Amino acid sequence: MGFLDEVNEPDLSLEPESPPPQLPRRRTHRHRSVDGLWDGLTVLLLVGMAGLILYFFLIFQNPYAPFNPYPPDTPIPTLFIPTFTPTPKVLPPTWTPTATLEPTFTLTPSATVTETPTMTFTPAPPTDTPQVSAYRYLMRGSPDYLPGKVIHPDEGCKLWVAGQAFDLKGAPVVGITVQIGGSLDRSLYLLTLTGTAPQYGTGGYEFVLAEQAMASNESVWVQLLDQEGYALSPRVYFNTYADCEKNLILVNFKQVR
């Protein structure tokens, strides 16, 4: 058997076969559905981001938009002073009393009657005397009551308060805050500026207190304020009347210092 040992035995081990070529995998309908879902979600995300950007931009442009859940406090409206100057209506002239001296008769023993001539004179208009006051403005004269149809012939029998403000030289002043308060048929708190009602003059102002004239006893007042809200004049209280011949109340102010 020695010669058989020298014979090379055949190698019976199998060589590994090379794997067959892999064909490209085809995307199934399920894979396409998943990819489409992710694409749709991506588009929705982009649209949502764009919507959020637009939403915040609109709120930035207008914080008072109705869709803003946290709007800022409403600011105090700015009062607008008109620039036009219409022709003011002429108020009725002020009645000036005329003092007339009655004739006197002197009896003498001779029964002769002597008649003293009648003297008629017109007093000069009163001169404003500066008053010492802690306020810069005081009411000039006293409130005047006029029929509202003088200024508003077509607005019925409303109740108005109006007037002007004048400086030390008697010139009208524009831009002073006028406040009215008190109570009538309701609590009153209204603001305006001198110069906003030029039908009463260059420094005119006006309030509408009620749609119908009504009576009250010094329960309503009017006052001038500066730009910071401090009083420039004392509160001027006045009466109102349920009379269409007295439904326009004029309250004028004069600077005293």
Layout of helices and strands:
Elements: H1 2-5, H2 29-61, E1 99-100, E2 105-107, E3 113-115, E4 120-121, E5 137-139, E6 144-146, E7 159-166, E8 177-183, E9 187-193, E10 204-210, E11 216-225, E12 236-240, E13 248-250, E14 253-255
Parallel strand pairs: 7-13, 7-14
Antiparallel strand pairs: 1-4, 2-3, 5-14, 6-13, 7-10, 8-9, 8-11, 11-12
Q: What does this protein structure show overall?
A:
This protein has 257 residues and is α+β, with helices and mostly antiparallel strands. Among the domains are: 32-73, no CATH class; 130-255, Immunoglobulins (Immunoglobulin-like, Sandwich). It is built from two helices and 14 strands, in the order ααββββββββββββββ. The chain has helices spanning 2-5, 29-61, and strands at 99-100, 105-107, 113-115, 120-121, 137-139, 144-146, 159-166, 177-183, 187-193, 204-210, 216-225, 236-240, 248-250, 253-255. The strands form four sheets. Strands 5, 6, 7, 10, 13 and 14 form a six-stranded mixed β-sheet that branches. It has a four-stranded antiparallel β-sheet with strand order 9-8-11-12, with no helix packed on it. The protein has a two-stranded antiparallel ribbon with strand order 1-4. A hairpin with a 3-residue loop joins β8 and β9. The longest helix is centred in the first third of the chain and has 33 residues, at 29-61. It is rod-shaped. It starts with a helix and ends with a strand.
